[in-house]
Design goal:
Elements: E1 15-19, E2 26-30, H1 42-47, E3 54-58, H2 71-85, E4 89-95, H3 98-109, E5 117-121, H4 128-143, H5 149-165, H6 169-190, H7 197-215, H8 221-224, E6 228-231, H9 244-247, E7 253-256, H10 268-277
Parallel strand pairs: 2-3, 2-4, 4-5, 5-6, 6-7
Antiparallel strand pairs: 1-3
């Protein structure tokens, strides 16, 4: 059975408390978690853990505040909660592109205390091409059932035009977010979604694009070399997404699972492995380049 859950003594401003524990250390999860996404979430992972720590998950800023925020500003926003808690951080766990922010958090936390453990789950970088790629896939999936083929093509073409015009990933995220806010509310209404759902969806996705674009400012590889990576069997995810010649030196240790990427954080085997890793020490001391 998981340890007894207590009420948190203070609600952090920039984190979701996945499990409260009275006193003791924190474990911080870095991810852009949203309800209803197909891949398993840290909420599901934490439900299967026995480790007696308080678990926090980073949250994006409220809609409208993310515009122009750098990676350093995102990290500082989360660090304020950590400093104000007065609690040591036992480990930082990153999922997918959240792994670049996990590395940044480890380096900042190490200024305050002993270096925390770093665990990465299907780690990935955050790069500019991902911003436009996610936009195209998201808009195609959401719009195809409700709009004409010409309208879907126009939305994709507008995104590519924005990509060509934007000087930086954050400029691209801002332009694509504006397109989402212009296109999605009407499309969702035409598809019969409840009033306001289209705008809510557009705001969430625009926030994600800004989060991903800011992460492109970080090269986390130096810190990843001290991490343990938990890797799924899904082609194109985790370490499999990197060129074969780069994989050997990316992390200190790899634990492979014959489990799909979407299921990785909701399986008992992975939860048991994470529990074990939370009892081990950080194996190296490097800094984020």
């Amino acid at each position: 059975m998981p340890p007894e859950v207590h009420q948190a003594t203070r609600t952090p401003a920039a984190h979701s408390v996945l499990r409260a524990a009275e006193g003791g250390a924190l474990v911080v999860a870095a991810d852009f978690g949203t309800a209803g996404r197909p891949s398993a979430t840290f909420t599901e992972l934490v439900e299967g853990l026995r480790a007696p720590y308080e678990f926090w998950e980073t949250m994006p800023p409220p809609h409208g505040e993310e515009a122009g925020m750098s990676a350093a500003q995102h990290i500082e926003r989360w660090m304020r909660d950590i400093r104000e808690s007065g609690r040591p951080v036992r480990a930082v766990i990153g999922f997918c592109s959240g792994s670049v922010y996990a590395a940044g958090l480890v380096d900042e936390i190490a200024r305050l205390q002993k270096r925390p453990r770093l665990v990465l789950i299907d780690p990935d970088l955050a790069e500019r091409h991902m911003v436009i790629g996610h936009y195209e896939r998201f808009m195609t999936a959401r719009l195809t059932p409700v709009l004409t083929g010409e309208e879907v093509e126009a939305a994709v073409r507008a995104g590519r035009d924005a990509d060509a015009a934007a000087a930086t990933p954050l400029e691209l995220a801002a332009a694509l977010g504006a397109l989402c806010l212009r296109i999605l509310p009407d499309a969702c209404e035409r598809g019969g979604a409840p009033e306001g759902r289209g705008r809510e969806l557009a705001e969430i996705f625009a926030s994600y694009l800004h989060w991903l674009a800011a992460g492109a400012e970080l090269d986390a590889r130096a810190v990843w070399r001290e991490a343990t990576a938990i890797n799924s069997r899904t082609e194109g995810f985790g370490l499999d997404a990197f060129p074969e010649e780069e994989r050997a030196g990316l992390v200190a240790e790899v634990i492979d699972f014959d489990i799909p990427h979407l299921e990785l954080m909701r399986t008992p085997e992975v939860a048991r492995t994470v529990d074990g890793l939370l009892q081990t020490e950080q194996p190296a001391d490097r800094s984020l380049a």
